Known about the structure:
This protein has 404 residues and is an alpha/beta fold. Helices cover 35% and strands 17% of the residues.
Amino acid sequence: MSSTPRGERMFITLLGVRNSGKSSLINALTGQEIAIVSETPGTTTDPVDKRYELIPIGPVTFYDTGGIDDIGELGEKRVQATNKILYRTDLALFLNPNESFDAIELRLIQRLREMKIPLLVVFNKCDLRSPLQTNIDYCDRLQIPWCDISALSGEGVDKCKKLIVAMAPSHLNQQKILLGDIINAGDHVILVTPIDLSAPKGRLILPQVQVLRDLLDQNAIVTVVQVPELKAAIEIARHRPKLAVTDSQAIATVAVTVPPEVGLTTFSILFARYKGELNALYQGANHLDQLQDGDRILIAEACSHHVESDDIGRYKLPEWIRNYTGKDLVFEVYSGHDFPEKLEDYALIIHCGGCMINAMEFNQRIQEAERRSVPITNYGLTICKVHGVLERAVAPVRHSIRRD
């Protein structure tokens, strides 16, 4: 469970007013005392993640959040923190302590529906009173699944767990494809994995590891090299490689070295297809040609990290983009789960590969950008574009891009 990448887990967020029983339900669902329970309102402040193996889904992360009715300046910040969690939520459990829905609850339910987040309403404390018929009618009218439980006594918890499993988003159960549709058993694939200042000590980065494992699962023949060894690896190969996959930052050099008849793409492009909407990101990359002087560009990083002198988001990308466009542009960087609310302020969003966030959060960001009519792309597609090799790099997965 602990070894499952964060980006591959299902994220289940518990929401509700203070003292609705969110922490108690986590304990009831897991059969463990992993969340602090108290009758004092506001015991849970900032969102807290709890990992659990939910059979048959597998590893999941429960998010225990503060009450959406928290008050005061600090309470408002807690509510804002809860709202940010929604962007990475695969399934929302909305707890109601068997009281009439108030305006705050109704607003949040509406927001969840607008964000297209699967929602299960859980009427808690059925050992004390039955769910209100008006609440049930509301859920039935909007076709929102619901159940009634007692997190304290355990009544109805098994049914709740079965509903969670049944409501798991379809993308979690689908067999995601990295290379399985373009690589056959026995094909030779070369992975180009540069080791630079930003490379982790003693290991490969997550996308490289996942691509390598996928190729091994496909019974492909895999060669892993750094850029200086690429030419020799191609020359000594008994049969010409079918495909080369490279780190995006090395694409300019690798594109010259790899023969035109050998397929070429990047780890970032593969993961744009695997976790996001490749078509939207591809169109966003082509928007670089429309930038004007003074435009603001958002550089969005999914994780925080130590900044090196050759940092891709802060130094390399801005330099390459300015050289490519010839425009005087303004770049702003947001790291981790922070994502600015006023996306309309930007002419373009350039996102990292998103290997440290789940598919829901990545797609929520894409959808939010599209809703605001702001083009969005990622690092890998941008690098290919500014180095003039975008069309070659997307050629192996061209069938995944819609032709509008």
